[in-house]
From TrEMBL:
The protein, known as: Glycerophosphodiester phosphodiesterase family protein
Record Pfam families: GDPD
Cross-referenced Gene3D superfamilies: Phosphatidylinositol (PI) phosphodiesterase
Domain of life: Bacteria
PROSITE patterns: GP_PDE (PS51704), PIPLC_X_DOMAIN (PS50007)
InterPro entries xrefs: GP_PDE_dom (IPR030395), PLC-like_Pdiesterase_TIM-brl (IPR017946)
Organism: Metasolibacillus meyeri
Domain GP-PDE, first and last residues per copy: 3-235
Gene Ontology molecular function: phosphoric diester hydrolase activity
GO biological process terms, semicolon-separated: lipid metabolic process
Amino acid sequence: MSIPIYAHRGASAYVLENTMEAFQKALKLGADGIELDVQCSKDGHLIVFHDNNIKRLTGINRLVQECTLEELKSYPLGRRFSRIFSTKRIPELKDVIDWAIKEKVPLNIELKESLTTNHEALIKLLTTIEIPENSHFSSFYQKLLIIVKKYRPHIETALLVTKKFDWSKLDDFPYIDVIHAHKKYYKRSYLKACESAGKNMRFYSVTGKESFIAEPHPVVAGWITDYPDIVAKNKI
């Protein structure tokens, strides 16, 4: 079985991350799915943006949750100097979901930190919207995944793990279906722990040059990469 490739923030090695252009480019480069980040505005709207502070891509030193949707959508996006002439803007999650449903592309929807203080926005999303087939929610924040399972129990949830994670307690998390981990955790002990717990794994920061992508462990359910074209050439 072929392992799905998720383009990390879209084809972010080639096009500005988390933009419609990056998502469209990812499909052209052979991605099977899209990984994106969701933050919440001051007035409760969900947007696709990675950082909690918008300065890196807008030049404006403000937190996402301090800005209204109207303000967030008005800021040109880009790296320093290039953003002056940029026509790229922060997309709303609902627009990306509509596009993904039309294109029949699964989404890896990562729930970010601004949602930890606005559960209502997440609950509204879960109770009012459909997502593309085979999509899932991921997060570093277990409380957000618990909410997902409460309102949409049949949607897959994935926990992003850090070095503090206790792999011996995988059975203690019935609300987590899959583990998402940096590729440095592609080791026998972690793979075996997930196998024993009946949980699959997806690995991020994959470049396509790793030897393991040609012969992946059975628990591997996806590669998350900035380079979907390179991974597509080298995976099974």
